[in-house]
């Protein structure tokens, strides 16, 4: 509410709204279902947000960001911190709030 009153950039408000939705979802799934990867969630949210606002419009930049996401996800499995399903679920839980909130708040 304070950010709106201070005329903060809409992208900042959208990003914080995504975090407010993502964190409880992540915590509930971790507690009741399985331990999902927060690393994969964060990188998925960043990747999805950058895609939606058009900041990954150069193929090299897109390839770089996707590579970072894939390496992050691979490392979580390789270090045995998570299973493949946990990393995939983390990626989906990170991307979903962005896919919902950004179109609603930034259009």
Q: Determine the fraction of residues in helical runs and give it as a percent range.
A: over 70%
Low confidence ranges: none
Q: Determine the mean pLDDT.
A: 95
Number of discrete domains:
1
- Taking the alpha carbons of the first and last residues, their distance comes to 19 Å
- How much strand content do the residues show? under 5%
Strand segment tally: 0
**DSSP helical segment count:** 5
Write the element-wise H/E pattern from the N-terminal end onward. HHHHH
Q: Based on helices, strands and strand pairing, what is the structural class? A: mainly alpha
Q: Mind describing the biggest β-sheet?
A: none
Computed CA radius of gyration, to the nearest angstrom: 15 Å
The best one-word shape is: flat
Structure, explained:
With 107 residues, the chain is mostly helical. The chain has helices spanning 2-5, 10-32, 38-52, 59-78, 84-106. The model has no long low-confidence stretch (mean pLDDT 95). It has one domain (23-106).
Features:
flat; 5 helices; mainly alpha
């Amino acid at each position: 509410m304070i950010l709106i009153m201070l005329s903060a950039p809409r992208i900042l408000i959208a990003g914080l709204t995504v975090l407010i939705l993502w964190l409880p979802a992540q915590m509930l799934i971790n507690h009741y279902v399985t331990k999902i990867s927060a690393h994969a969630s964060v990188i998925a949210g960043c990747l999805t947000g950058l895609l939606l606002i058009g900041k990954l419009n150069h193929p090299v930049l897109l390839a770089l960001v996707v590579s970072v996401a894939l390496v992050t996800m691979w490392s979580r499995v390789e270090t045995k911190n998570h299973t493949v399903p946990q990393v995939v679920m983390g990626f989906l839980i990170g991307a979903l709030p962005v896919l919902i909130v950004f179109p609603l708040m930034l259009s």
